[in-house]
Design a protein that fits this description.
- The protein is mostly beta strands and about 190 residues long.
- The strands form four sheets. A four-stranded antiparallel β-sheet has the order 4-5-6-7, with no helix packed on it.
- A hairpin with a 5-residue loop joins strand 12 and strand 13.
- It is elongated.
Length: about 190
């Protein structure tokens, strides 16, 4: 439901999984309109790649899609049902959204393949502005990263490893991802 109760939306998955839609229904008239229309010649992977976030104050929504061949985030005008612009783009994928900061209009997310020269299956943490600018990689070591943010989100603990290397834990600044210090390095012996 929208905050003023004028309409509600629902997710429609067409049989065969080749169309996924967000449909808005006018509460007064019952008229329906597709707000998001996600077609695919093969199938829409909605089970692991579904993300939608309604931004009621601005009449927008954030939508995750593989329409470019890579899983990315898009900003929609939820009133008109049109794509405003891609938020993320490139030959890498958004794995999950960790946080949306409405005040700063930023998205914090996990990505695969975002670091050139690294295995595309390694998961890194990043941040981007709603308008697609300011993409900041918050992790850098070769491996899959798990992070814990300080309560004020100024710092993060970055722990990463891979199958042939034990875990490394580092303290990093969140504003630009720079290293404060290495805290611990595992020893496989």
């Amino acid at each position: 439901w929208t905050p003023d109760s004028s309409r509600f939306t629902f997710l429609y998955n067409q049989r065969g999984h080749q169309v996924l839609r967000i449909v808005a229904v006018n509460a007064q008239t019952g008229a329906a309109q597709a707000v998001v229309d996600e077609p695919s010649r093969t199938f829409v992977n909605y089970s692991g790649n579904l993300y939608v976030n309604y931004l009621d104050d601005t009449g927008q929504l954030i939508w995750m899609s593989e329409r470019s061949g890579w899983n990315h985030l898009y900003l929609y005008d939820a009133r008109k049902g049109t794509v405003m612009h891609p938020i993320t783009q490139g030959e890498w994928v958004v794995r999950s959204v960790e946080r949306v900061d409405l005040e700063k209009r930023q998205i914090w997310f996990a990505a695969g393949g975002i670091r050139p020269g690294q295995d595309p299956y390694y998961v890194h943490q990043a941040r981007v502005n709603f308008d697609g600018t300011g993409l900041t990689l918050l992790t850098d070591g070769e491996g899959t990263h798990s992070v814990q943010f300080s309560p004020d989100r100024r710092f993060l603990l970055d722990s990463y490893s891979r199958v042939d290397r034990p875990a490394v834990t580092k303290l990093r600044r969140v504003d630009d991802g720079t290293l404060v210090c290495e805290l611990e390095r595992g020893d496989a012996s």
